[in-house]
Amino acid sequence: MNPPGGDSPPLALNVDDMARRLLVLANFYLNAHDESALDVVELGQLHRVLNSYYNGSDYSVHDILRELSPDCGDLVLRGIIYGTPVNTSQLFLKRATSSGVCCIFNYRRPSYSQYPSKRAQDDAEIAALPEVIFESNSILNGIQFVLQDTTTDDYTQTYFSNTAFRLQIFPQEDYATVQSNSNGGILVDHNTIVEVPIQPKFLNSSVAVRSVTPQTRRCYFPEEGRRLLNQSYYSLDECVLLCRIASMVQHCGCASSPMAGSSINVTYCSLLDLPCLMRWKRIWYGFTEYPYVHMDGQNGESSLEQCQHCLPSCDGVNFEIVSNVAPLRKTYNSTGYFHGLLKGLTNDRPLSIIKLFFRLRFGQATEMDMVGDWVVLLNRFGGILSLMYGFSIISYIEILYYMTGKWFVHYYRAYNRRKEASKADFQSYSINWNELFPHGAASSVRQQENTK
Asked: Any residues with CB less than 8 A from the CB of 145 and at least 6 apart, and which?
């Protein structure tokens, strides 16, 4: 396969070779530790091939990666929701995220495809899906899905590649990758049954807290967050997402299509921009070996330092997630399993089961309230002093006395003690001198004095 124009050597010899060349698109995921040797000439050839395939228009890396990935029906085979079997192919959506192409359940975020027509199609697909309300706290009556791994040809190899399924739990409207923490990520190994009890924690803030600045209370109210992002939805992950897009645009003039995660008006990167994105990735994840991208001699900043304006929501819900893992017994006959959710399935490809349910029948509610302003703190300080010292007018006089008069009395008494001590020393010296004379001589001297 030759790129259009010029007499450059062929890019690929056959379809398999072309498929291998297209693996370079996986670098748009920009995983933290992936280091790929990029051939600029080959990137240019593949860029021209894709442009010609899409009739000279800009190609969407997001949509290409999604089309080349396996369907969700091949990954999620069966499911039970509150005791009722469901068709999983009608419940899961396929979306490209910063960690790969994922199959997403119960998703309500608008499409972030590069093409307006594709976004409208994706949004219509989301609207047609039934919305599942999570309400069960029973492991036997929760949500269960059977996962079956794909062939190794469909793997996206990264620096930390493994064969486990990656399960991420996040709010319906958020971008489909947990960016602010790692609590929502669980690895589901092959041939295991993973139970995921979820415990919600409700957060609320009183009206008095609104008088405090967001930098002091370390959170945003919904209207403050929406005003900050200039859009109808705010979350900590949403703020970090837009901050990441702005950082990419600042350094490279474009945003990676799978990582953009939003339908905002932004220029999407092509294969020719991939070397710059790789350099940006090192800066975003905290590496500073490339000072030439820093302006005015400033030091490079990691992602958390660049997005210090991103704060959590004052009102919302957080989820505490744990996992319980049990082994899944393999079947060694050709007919597969005989009963249950796995009936008729075999271990030709590795299987796993995930079970989602609430851990308790209730959720903890936490409210942030104003403890007191500086006037209240001053009153409490005075009350503590009064309690400890019994303050009154006499107490102030005593304090004044100890700070002034007590020192005067101390120095006056010390002076008198030194004066009396010197006088006593003189008297002792006189007595000792008289004792040096003989007794007779002393008496004769006294007689002579009397005679005179």
From this structure: 76, 78, 79, 88, 105, 353, 354
pLDDT confidence tier of residue 182, bands split at 50, 70 and 90: low
Residue 172 to residue 403: CA distance in whole angstroms: 67
Name residue 93's beta-bridge partners. 104
Residue 101: which of 124, 144, 78, 70 has the closest Cα?
70
| Residue 447: pLDDT band with limits 50, 70, 90 | very low
**pLDDT tens-digit map of 81-110:** 988 899 998 899 888 888 788 899 998 888
Structure tokens at 4: 């259009």
pLDDT at 291: 42
Could you tell me how far CA 278 lies from the centroid of its own chain?
22
Nearest of 235, 239, 233, 277 to residue 255 by alpha carbon = 277
Assigned token pair, 132: 């599942």
| H or E segment to which residue 198 belongs | strand 192-205
pLDDT exceeds cutoff 50 at 353: yes
What tokens does 271 get? 């294969």
Candidate ranges 128-132, 217-221, 303-307; pick with highest mean pLDDT: 217-221
Q: Write the DSSP string, 205-229.
A: E-GGGGGS-HHHHT-B-HHHHHHHH
**Beta carbons within 8 Å of 372's beta carbon, 6+ residues apart:** 380
Phi then psi for 375, rounded to 5 degrees?
-65, -45
Q: What type of residue sits at position 52?
A: S
Q: What is the DSSP annotation of 150-163?
A: --GGG----TT--S
C-alpha span between 92 and 73 (Å, rounded): 8
Unique residue bearing structure tokens 């990676």: 256
CA end-to-end span of the chain, whole Å? Answer: 150
Percent of the chain with pLDDT over 90: 13
CB 194 within 8 A of CB 188: yes
| Chain centroid offset of residue 394 CA | 57
DSSP 40-73: HHHHHHHHHHHHHHTTTSPP-HHHHHHHHSPPHH
CB within 8 Å of 362: residues ≥ 6 apart = none
